Amino acid sequence: PCYSNMLRAIVLAVLSLGLPAGAMVLSRSPSIAQLSRTPLSSRSAVVADAKIPWDDDQGYGPIGSLIRQGPTPFFQRLVDPAKYEKSVKMYMIKNRCSRMEAQGNMDAYLADPNGWTLTKLNAKKGGYEPDYANINTDPKQLILTAVWASVVFAIAGRMIYVAVYLPELTEDIGKGIFK
What we know:
The protein contains nine helices and no strands. It is mainly α.
């Protein structure tokens, strides 16, 4: 809920700063030039149909979002894929970047909006800017993460099992001893 309002505010801010308002779009599949002449009020509907000339790669699926930035962007993609796609296309248009870069940045934003914004501001000042398209995709790191996750889930599962079934076992043992 909070992320959707924040995302909406950032998308509107990006559109209002980067694209001037103008005439309505006449065709069904607008070009980038037509999109820039579209009024702000109808721009989000047009972005969904926009054909981006440099959009030649397929990007990555929801599992890629899970690997790169965790469960928040993964579930956002599953819950509202059309909104996610619009946001990615708007980012591509505004920054003239590839789909992979736009998806990586959108996932990073959904995972941590404040951190992503701070990183972008620091990058404009000449600071470090991470490669969000390829972050957390090292095979060794993925294997290590999977091993640690399995250990954590095994311990958590054992704790739940003991908490649920141990009181019943101790009651049965106590009844047998005190008969």
